[in-house]
Amino acid sequence: MSLLSPSAVVDRHRTPFSWARVSGLLDPGYAGLLADEFPSAALRESRSPQGHYLLRDGTVIEAGERTPAAAALPGSWQRLLDWLLGPAYRSFVSEATGAALDGCRLKVRLCEYGPGTFMTAHTDRPDRVATQILYLTRSWDAGWGGGLDIMTSPDDDDPAAVAASVRPRFNTSVLFARSDRSYHAVRPVSEAAGAPRRTVLAQFVADAV
Questions:
Q1: How many C-alpha atoms does 146 have within 13 Å on its Cβ side?
Q2: pLDDT, averaged across the chain
Q3: β-strand 197-206 against 162-166: which pairing, if any?
Q4: Does residue 3 sit within a domain?
Q5: Buried/exposed 143-157: b ≥16 CB within 10 Å, e otherwise
Q6: Bridge-partner residues for 4, per DSSP?
Q7: For residue 45, is it within any domain?
Q8: Would 96 be classed as within a structural domain?
Q9: Are residues 148 and 182 in contact, defined by beta-carbon separation less than 8 angstroms?
Q10: Is residue 26 a part of any domain in this protein?
Q11: Over the stretch 25-54, which tens digit does the pLDDT of each residue have?
């Protein structure tokens, strides 16, 4: 089973690391249903003691298995989890990122960034082999911030380090393979944002690195 829209457009890049932007990932009607049924009330604040990130999130798949929290999700979301756990999705991520996913298990978090939330420039942990982010806020104004910056260095204050910036448009997705130079950041969401920045964050995690 695949939930990929036939009209999805995958734009692959190899610099400054292997990443891809996908426009129209899912059927718009189905993506809209996910947006309408996004389980915000089940999410909890996640804050870095070092000040590297602030958001709300909840894990629905851990080590390739649904978590107890996933049981409360409606049917539209169960259908998404079925796809994410299947071989067609694994093949899609491997092809889009160039990452070898043998021996990796899936972790999926639902994330929500409200006004003032952010994530500073970083590379993911070495066991995070490949990542996909799906944006599910129906309308996102450019003035609300919250863009995902693809960066050449971890210097948040250097505009020249931003190789590309992806606005969290509805039903747009970003994938990337983890490396020692896969720096990325979530720019702060404006206090004037009219809606939270809602995403599905899927990561293939290696059992051993």
A1: 32
A2: 97
A3: unpaired
A4: no
A5: ebbbbbbbbbeeebe
A6: 26
A7: yes
A8: yes
A9: no
A10: yes
A11: 999 999 999 999 999 999 999 999 989 999
